[in-house]
């Protein structure tokens, strides 16, 4: 009897067993639906947040008109994945209303902004641009000043041979003034840039110069010759305006173009430097002085970077050491060919030789 009673159970006692089977499945399903709803809701919220906080599309007429210029310059028949330049600029040479028209339109808008009356915050970039533009447009004051401001600069630099009052024969002294006072680097560029290795601290970098004459391209021989004639005419007119003898002015202009062209032949394209593994070299100032002795590197760099305390053992980053060697030799040859060695070059070269001798004795 006891055994039979234990095996017989009322119907209501079997219900919890059935519930224990489907309840975990229902709970997992509800949890999955809840997580999916949370993800969907958060995605929608983030979408509206980024849409409201991020930059909006420009719907102004000038913005809508801008793609037309680019579409007119591109060739949509070209495959962008194989020849993106043709896809973006394939018609640039065929159309006259592409990038050039866009540049002209930007200039016109900028001019209207600068000429429109308005109040700018004192010392702001807008106010400086406005003042600079108005000073350039004040032609009456410019004509009254004449060549006086430019003559003053020339006198501060030691005069000009074609003007007849050349007083300075100190090549490095003039170079120091050009670099430090006028930010002009005729034979090389010197600037502060990050070191390629961590922690990327600023280091003085010496690179090829930005030449004043246009670069020669084989496919543009006729255009290049025409541009060079115009450039030579400009130099002749400028020298004559400053009171120079026309014959001397023409000789000086031709010499300037010839010297710059020879410097250009020493330059190597960036791709060639990269292929040769010579994108940059870290050298000390005294080592650079030894390799390119015509330039007084320490004094010129110290005058330019006045906030830094430089010494001969200071390291600098040189992007094309072969160019600096050839440039130094060319400048020295040109100076010697004109019958003088400007003050400072012999002292600089002697200093470089003494440093070389000192290092050789230290190695011994």
From TrEMBL:
The keyword Nuclease does not apply. This is Peptidase M13 N-terminal domain-containing protein. The lineage of its organism: Eukaryota, Metazoa, Chordata, Craniata, Vertebrata. InterPro entries: Peptidase_M13 (IPR000718), Peptidase_M13_dom_2 (IPR042089), Peptidase_M13_N (IPR008753). It comes from Pipistrellus nathusii. The chain crosses the membrane at residues 29-50. Pfam families: Peptidase_M13_N (PF05649). Residues 80-333 form the Peptidase M13 N-terminal domain. Keywords: Membrane, Transmembrane, Transmembrane helix. It comes from the Eukaryota. The keyword Membrane applies. Signal peptide: none annotated.
